[in-house]
Every structure is written in structure tokens, then in C-alpha cells.
Amino acid sequence: MADIDSRRHPLHVAIENFAHDANIGTVVRTANAFAAQAVHIVGRKRWNRRGAMVTDRYQHIAHHPDVASLAEFAAREGLEIVAVDNVPGSVPLETAELPRNCLLLFGQEGPGVTDDARSVAAMTVSIAQFGSTRSINAGVAAGIAMHTWIRQHADLSNAW
């Protein structure tokens, strides 16, 4: 973890966990791949670690009992919260400029980002979709959004 800590990005990722969402492991694994500063789990503390494939040992993970405590953390750390959800009024991720000091916030599979979470976000972005489904898997959406942040802010000379 110390090696990754020496080159982490100021990107934080949060996911709401109200129904033991299986996507949390995927989000943790992807956050590790992009050297995100931390993954924040909002709601239930327990989550299925299998999807993380042991990367949770190398990734900072924080728990917040509710959205209000996540928002307090973000304010203290100078992070802008960006919700990721395909709702009316959202900004297309493909054209959005993500803040460098950013906390990307994802909802769980199905209901998406809660109203409480959307209310503390500085902006909400959506991922363009063209098929018959209304949404993509939350773990996949997290990977796309984190990669967008990487493209906009990371020093790519330090990549593998």
C-alpha cells in the first residue's frame, strides 16, 4: 500500500450500499487500478469483498453511515462531489470537465443515486448509452467515470 500511496491521485470514489451491492468489489478493484485516493462506502458497512480480488488490501476504504457524513468529509477535504447517474438534467460525462479534487459518487444497481446524494453533489453526470437498457452496471459505470477523470487529470507518463 505504501508504494501505491506514493503515487495516488486526488480522486475519491463513493458508492451507496443499501442492499449489499455486489458491485462494490468491482469499484474497489477499479479504484485500485487507477490509484484512487480512497473508496467510500455509504450506508451498510458490510460488502462482498470477492469482486475486489484482494485489491482491498491495497486500497484505502472508508465507511460513512449516511450521505450527510460523506458530504462533511468531502467539504473538509476540499473535494467536489460529482454524482454519476443518467437522470434528466445531468451533464454528459463525455463533455464534462471533472474537478481535479473530485469525489465520484455512484448509486447502487437499480435505483441509482439517491435524492439525498444528488442534493449534495456539485454536478451530476451521465454516461451516453444507445441500446435498449436504461442503465449500465454500476461497476462498469464507475470504471468509465474513473477513466474519464484519469484522461483529464493524470500524469500518464507514470502509467504501467
TrEMBL record:
<feature type="domain" description="tRNA/rRNA methyltransferase SpoU type">
    <location>
        <begin position="11"/>
        <end position="147"/>
    </location>
</feature>
<dbReference type="GO" id="GO:0003723">
    <property type="term" value="F:RNA binding"/>
</dbReference>
<dbReference type="GO" id="GO:0006396">
    <property type="term" value="P:RNA processing"/>
</dbReference>
<dbReference type="InterPro" id="IPR001537">
    <property type="entry name" value="SpoU_MeTrfase"/>
</dbReference>
<keyword id="KW-0489">Methyltransferase</keyword>
<dbReference type="GO" id="GO:0032259">
    <property type="term" value="P:methylation"/>
</dbReference>
<dbReference type="InterPro" id="IPR051259">
    <property type="entry name" value="rRNA_Methyltransferase"/>
</dbReference>
<protein>
    <submittedName>
        <fullName>RNA methyltransferase</fullName>
    </submittedName>
</protein>
<dbReference type="Pfam" id="PF00588">
    <property type="entry name" value="SpoU_methylase"/>
</dbReference>
<keyword id="KW-0808">Transferase</keyword>
<dbReference type="InterPro" id="IPR029028">
    <property type="entry name" value="Alpha/beta_knot_MTases"/>
</dbReference>
<dbReference type="InterPro" id="IPR029026">
    <property type="entry name" value="tRNA_m1G_MTases_N"/>
</dbReference>
<dbReference type="GO" id="GO:0008173">
    <property type="term" value="F:RNA methyltransferase activity"/>
</dbReference>
